[in-house]
Amino acid sequence: MRILVASDAWHPQVNGVVRTYERLAIELAALGVEMTVLAPHEFRTLPCPTYPEIRLALPGLRRVAQRFRAFRPDAVHIATEGPIGWMARRYCRARGIRFTTSFHTRFPEYLSQRFAIPASWTLALLRRFHNAGAGLMVATPSLGRELEGQGFEHVLPWTRGVDTRLFRPRPVRLFGEEPVFLYVGRIAAEKNIEAFLDLDLPGRKVVVGAGPQLEELQARYTDVLFTGKRTGEALAECYASADVFVFPSRTDTFGIVLLEAMASGLPVAALPVCGPKDVVTNGVTGVLSDDLRHAALAARSLDRDRIRVKAAEYSWEYAARLFLANITGACLNGQARTLAVRKLPLAKAARPPQARI
Hints:
six-stranded parallel beta sheet
């Protein structure tokens, strides 16, 4: 089976969308499924306004058609609502090709904050985009209920996983022995990072990541350690060197970093909003409170071994099986028999397998 994923977010970007589909490709390959990504580097690009690190593609329909014909996908998934996503949607609709989509980013809130574009305008556009598909995958139950209440149709559950071999407790203290409160993620206005940086907390605050707000925040918060972007083992050691992971965002749809922190045995302090309230078990793996300082201080007392055990329930293998089951049910119809013939193990998608720690 071959799946084409159309995404405006891909390397060299580092974000949750890229990391999700990068890992999904690996897990699908293990299930005998070939996945390819229709990505920005295949087209001319322009820097995104206010965020030049991100390049926006200028896709042409001819090039998109060439990629479809060359790959001959059995199923199509449109990951993002950018230029590539819209062009792939146009191609599929013109040829009667069923496709699924996913909701990764709260563009209505982001565009309203950055450009004063009314959220209702963007929401209407996104509803039109996604309702043309055969299924809309969402990462959390609370997001699914919210979108259904706003008129989005064919909502399908999906989830994310975490690499518990990479992200694990380690005997390291990169930032000293005093209490360390850590943030990992994009350094951008929509992440609400200042709500964390303004907190009166003992010890030190550490921010890992890059983004358009990095230089501004470095200049304003001279007592905070900004490490820049970290990946792989270097990132895993950052998690393991901290005492509390603080997640101040109000707009994330999931937050893979939450799982990475928890897999490292790191308790989470977050606001009780979509994403954290679906991933974090209050009082067990973290503390959810509108008072972020209280949450950060209270989280220090949680059992790090229990946190690690809960994180291990999130498997990338299960996430891939669920993705595949969604596509099978939404797009393939009669072709579903092909999956059975090729013995793709979709039956396990009904519930996650027992995770290994």
